[in-house]
Inverse folding.
């Protein structure tokens, strides 16, 4: 059963189509690497699936929830969407005024309405699991690129989405860290998560993806 | 040929004529320059009959003080030149030599006699109570006005009389910076009486037919000219001219022309011309006779009260400004295009016009529609003005939170409101803290402008103190120290908060 089904997706930036006719199916526990040069449309596909940019044409189905062309989802529809999909950004975008731990439990308390004590315990577990438990009380600017990357993954995973989107996850990592990240993502997939990763790092894609999709000028090349 | 020759002569003759005119003009300027000037200072804002811009030629001034200045200048063989100066700063200006003599309905007082060279008095006036016609039977004297608001001009004999009555008879003194608004506020009911000299009272009643003057006088005072303390030579010359003019009827003619002549003046002139020293000023205040130290001790409680008013007004205004600023900034960042345009227009309007004008509009301009109490008007004026500046700080602070964090918040399921309250707002607040502190310190000082709408805050109380003891030195130092006591802790607190947040 596919967790993500994309059909004939078109995304526009102003009058220009940056993604055209992209279709894609990803099944549970699968890791897909979307590859291609800068400007090929990788990030645009991810942002449309995450409900950050509007869909111009086509449709996206995530775990049974249908997104179609039109304005961005709001209110309950937005919350429904983000119970199903999380995103880790190229530059992490951690909330700079909060500690690593606080970054992870914030949405558990304020979006999922979990008791704070339980949310904190869960956040600490996630950070431990990703190997940054020792950095729980550091604020984002005190973290290295790799640490920030892991905290951002923990934050996205905390709300428990079956689908996780990652944009250029290796951009701020040295080669040794890339290997570690590949291992971590494989482990997540084996636990039943589905991952779509936009990257132009072939070695990394080879190390963790089950399948590779190449994009060129907004279309799937192969 | 003939024609050409003739035009050459015409050209030569006209060239010569132009030269003659030039020489004549130069000579005239030269002669004028050689005639020394008698520079006299006054406040044309005081208006008729004292000094006011000539309605038919606003570059000239007219009034009985103008006529007296001309008469004095003629007496010392000088040309009179008028120098505009604020009424409350005439004493300081003449002392530092901005002009030779101050003539602007200036009252004789002990403070002036100790600090300046004062001429013989040339006009005697009574302090008159003005009330609304409907209250004429109720409010005859100050004693009838217990608990009522009585307006006057700050730093005058009338103000001192009222300050004394505040203690003895329980009237509430409302000091104004000008002599027009006490009467307009009396007419609309903001105050219940005005105590000022009869010249101003007559003018006030002429402008507002619903007002009447009570016949009994509350006190008596005299108009004098003031000169720098070292300028006694010129003062003596001027005294001689004034006495001569009292004898030969020239002063009488001037006051008759301005419809101010009465029998009081005849008695005054008889006494002045007979007695070399002239009558002593009547004044309730003994501040000028006290040592500066004793005067300071006496004024300190009222300065401290005024400091509390400044602080309370500033804190409340800042709170209002923050609320307004947050609302405007939210509207400009999150609102639809028409609202954004409207709010931008409002911010530009407020930032592009003087705070003083805004205070005047709120207090006096709206008085026919809604009569806001002075403190409330000051609070609203300062709050609206600073709210516009705060909104700009918050807007730019909100916009400098990286948009990526807003995307991240959205993918975590936060609503726009939650994103603002939990993520964008707190980070913007940290960025806004330093400029907000600056604004609060600026507001503390700008709050002094509200004295123009009758709120007696720290600067106003200092002005009253200074004019009563006749020097700015000690009051100025005290005032500066009190402002620093208010502003330094704020700056200190802001620095500490910033440090704490940087660590967090």
């Amino acid at each position: 059963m596919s967790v993500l089904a994309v059909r004939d997706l078109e995304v526009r930036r102003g009058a220009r189509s940056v993604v055209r006719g992209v279709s894609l199916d990803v099944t549970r526990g699968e890791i897909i690497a979307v590859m291609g040069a800068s400007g090929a449309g990788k990030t645009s596909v991810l942002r449309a699936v995450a409900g950050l940019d509007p869909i111009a044409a086509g449709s996206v189905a995530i775990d049974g929830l249908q997104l179609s062309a039109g304005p961005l989802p709001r209110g309950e529809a937005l919350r429904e969407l983000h119970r199903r999909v999380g995103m880790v950004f190229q530059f992490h975008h951690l909330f700079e005024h909060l500690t690593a731990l606080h970054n992870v439990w914030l949405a558990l308390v304020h979006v999922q309405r979990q008791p704070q004590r339980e949310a904190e315990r869960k956040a600490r577990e996630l950070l431990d699991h990703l190997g940054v438990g020792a950095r729980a009380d550091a604020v984002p600017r005190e973290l290295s690129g790799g640490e920030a990357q892991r905290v951002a993954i923990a934050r996205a995973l905390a709300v428990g989405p079956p689908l996780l989107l990652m944009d250029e996850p290796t951009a701020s990592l040295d080669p040794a860290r890339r290997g570690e990240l590949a291992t971590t993502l494989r482990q997540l997939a084996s636990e039943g998560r589905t991952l779509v990763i936009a990257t132009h790092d072939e070695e990394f894609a080879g190390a963790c993806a089950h399948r590779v999709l190449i994009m060129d000028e907004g279309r799937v090349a192969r | 040929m003939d024609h050409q020759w003739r035009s050459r002569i015409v050209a030569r003759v006209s060239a010569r004529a132009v030269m003659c005119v030039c020489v004549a003009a130069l000579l005239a300027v030269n002669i004028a320059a050689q005639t020394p000037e008698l520079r006299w200072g006054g406040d044309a804002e005081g208006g008729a009959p004292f000094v006011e811009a000539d309605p038919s030629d606003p570059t000239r001034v007219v009034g009985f003080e103008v006529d007296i200045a001309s008469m004095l200048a003629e007496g010392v063989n000088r040309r009179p030149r008028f120098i505009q100066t604020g009424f409350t700063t005439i004493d300081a200006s003449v002392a530092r030599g901005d002009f030779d003599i101050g003539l602007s309905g200036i009252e004789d007082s002990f403070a002036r006699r100790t600090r300046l060279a004062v001429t013989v008095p040339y006009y005697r006036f009574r302090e008159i109570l003005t009330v609304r016609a409907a209250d004429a039977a109720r409010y005859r004297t100050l004693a009838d006005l217990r608990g009522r608001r009585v307006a006057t001009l700050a730093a005058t004999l009338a103000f001192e009389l009222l300050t004394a009555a505040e203690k003895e008879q329980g009237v509430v003194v409302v000091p104004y910076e000008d002599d027009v608004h006490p009467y307009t506020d009396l007419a609309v009911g903001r105050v219940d009486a005005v105590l000022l000299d009869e010249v101003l009272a007559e003018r006030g009643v002429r402008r507002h037919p619903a007002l009447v003057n009570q016949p009994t006088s509350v006190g008596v005072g005299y108009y004098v000219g003031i000169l720098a303390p070292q300028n006694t030579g010129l003062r003596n010359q001027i005294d001689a001219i004034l006495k001569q003019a009292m004898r030969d009827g020239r002063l009488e003619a001037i006051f008759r022309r301005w419809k101010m002549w009465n029998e009081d003046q005849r008695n005054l002139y008889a006494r002045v011309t007979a007695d070399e020293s002239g009558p002593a000023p009547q004044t309730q205040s003994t501040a000028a006779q006290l040592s500066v130290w004793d005067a300071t001790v006496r004024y300190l409680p009222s300065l401290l009260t005024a400091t509390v008013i400044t602080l309370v007004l500033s804190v409340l205004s800042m709170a209002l400004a923050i609320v307004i600023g947050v609302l405007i900034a939210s509207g400009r960042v999150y609102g639809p295009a028409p609202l954004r345009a409207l709010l931008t227009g409002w911010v530009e309007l407020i930032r592009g016009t003087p705070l003083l004008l805004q205070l005047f509009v709120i207090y006096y301009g709206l008085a026919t529609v809604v009569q806001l109490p002075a403190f409330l008007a000051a609070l609203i004026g300062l709050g609206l003005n600073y709210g516009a500046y705060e909104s700009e700080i918050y807007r730019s602070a909100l916009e400098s939170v990286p948009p990526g964090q807003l995307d991240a918040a959205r993918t975590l399921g936060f609503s726009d409101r939650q994103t603002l309250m939990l993520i964008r707002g707190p980070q913007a607040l940290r960025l806004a803290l330093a400029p907000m502190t600056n604004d609060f310190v600026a507001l503390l000082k700008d709050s002094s402008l509200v004295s123009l709408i009758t709120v007696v805050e720290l600067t106003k109380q200092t002005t009253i103190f200074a004019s009563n003891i006749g020097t700015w030195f000690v009051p100025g130092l005290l005032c500066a120290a009190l402002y620093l006591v208010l502003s330094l802790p704020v700056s200190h607190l802001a620095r500490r908060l910033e440090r704490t947040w940087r660590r967090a």
